[in-house]
Design goal:
With 141 residues, the chain is α/β, with parallel strands linked by helices. It has a single domain, classed as Cytidine Deaminase, domain 2. Helix content is 23%, strand content 36%. The chain is built from three helices and eight strands; from the N terminus they run E-H-E-E-H-E-H-E-E-E-E. It has a six-stranded mixed beta sheet, with helices on both faces. A two-stranded parallel ribbon has the order 1-8. The longest helix is centred in the N-terminal third of the chain and has 14 residues. The radius of gyration is 14 Å and the shape is globular. The two termini are 27 Å apart. 33% of the residues are buried.
């Protein structure tokens, strides 16, 4: 993970859309995946199977998660973020999110739904209270 907490996270539209398509496709189950990058810049988004197939919890498929970490390592990228969805939950981290936040320097992106619209917010979960990290979406070149 990164050594310094970012003051914001930068994603390209394509990366944003990869996550959005994933959370829509997997609903009503929670979707999940990894973000690889450098510093505050996301370079790659890797969807990972939720082996719990649950609408209220996720656990990444271990073999896919390991493959994703190896892939990022080969590209000299850091795992700077983790995304998952709350298809029936709040736009804020749950108690379970805090308990299972094993990467204290990662930005946790939480997708949630309001009607038919999906929204995403980023958080650092290494303290008792979540620290919101703004997400900057830039146009693809």
């Amino acid at each position: 993970m990164t050594e310094q907490l970012p003051d914001y996270l930068v994603l390209r539209e394509e990366q944003w859309n990869i996550m959005l398509v994933d959370v829509i496709k997997r609903a009503p189950e929670e979707a999940c995946g990894l973000l690889g990058g450098k510093g505050r810049d996301v370079v790659d988004v890797i969807p990972v199977t939720n082996v719990l197939h649950s609408p209220v919890r996720y656990r990444m498929a271990p073999e896919e998660q390991l493959a994703a970490f190896n892939y990022l390592d080969q590209l000299d990228l850091d795992p700077i973020g983790i995304y998952h969805s709350h298809p029936i939950g709040p736009q804020v981290p749950s108690e379970t999110d805090f308990k299972e936040s094993y990467y204290p320097e990662a930005v946790y992106l939480i997708w949630s739904r309001s009607g038919d619209d999906w929204n995403c917010r980023g958080f650092i979960l290494s303290t008792d209270d979540p620290i919101e990290i703004p997400l900057k979406i830039v146009r693809d070149k």
